[in-house]
Amino acid sequence: MACTHHCCSTENADNGRYRNILWIALFINALMFAVEIIMGIKAGSVSLLADSLDFFGDAANYGISLFVVGKTLHIRAKASWIKGYTMGGFGLWVLASTLYHFWYGNIPNHHDMGIVGVIALIANIIVAVLLFAFRNGDSNRRSVWLCSRNDAIGNIMVVAAAFAVQFTQSSWPDLLVAVTMAVLALQAAVQIIRHANTELSARPKISLVAQHEQHFDPD
């Protein structure tokens, strides 16, 4: 069935608003990546470094999402599939980095951790609020929402870890937060990949139904 003029106009307006929000999210995440990668190295914090790469990954994800806005469900599902495996790779990298810092790392600078963590939290809350209305869309939109949600949760934990590092004078809180962020990334990756695979596997069935209807079309 062809889309009515009102339906198409509504969809185009929705895609246009979503695209504008993605540009804002892309800028915020690219900026915060630069801030956190510098401060993470300066503070010696593995959780900040993990969060900086998370910002980088999200900026790349938003860029991909901008490319597939308005594309077919099959193309959007493929993009989600790629993003899911990217998030999974990020989670595994954080786990490996945490093990390295467990053996060779020093106590991070809790003051820098706290300040940067609060700034990153504010940035991610802004992005999460902007994307909240699109959280129940296709796998691609859901992946963008999950990235933003996990970032906000991760930033809260970074701030909490900064206080814990100051109180305990130990690197353990920083390491525990990094592991938790890795687990969140892996869980989100599994959800996104499963959703994308469902959409990709459904495509041939939809095509067969369309061909069947076209074959028996009395016109």
TrEMBL record:
Domain Cation efflux protein transmembrane intervals: 22-199
InterPro entries tied to this protein: Cation_efflux_TM, Cation_efflux_TMD_sf, CDF/SLC30A
UniProt keyword annotation of Transmembrane present: yes
TM region(s), chain numbering: 21-43, 55-73, 85-103, 115-132
Keyword tags: Ion transport, Membrane, Transmembrane, Transmembrane helix, Transport, Zinc, Zinc transport
One function term, GO molecular function aspect: zinc ion transmembrane transporter activity
Protein's name according to its UniProt entry: Cation transporter
Location(s) in or outside the cell: Membrane
Origin species: Neisseria zalophi
Domain of life: Bacteria
Gene3D superfamilies the record matches: Cation efflux protein transmembrane domain
Gene Ontology CC terms, in alphabetical order: plasma membrane
Topology term for the membrane: Multi-pass membrane protein
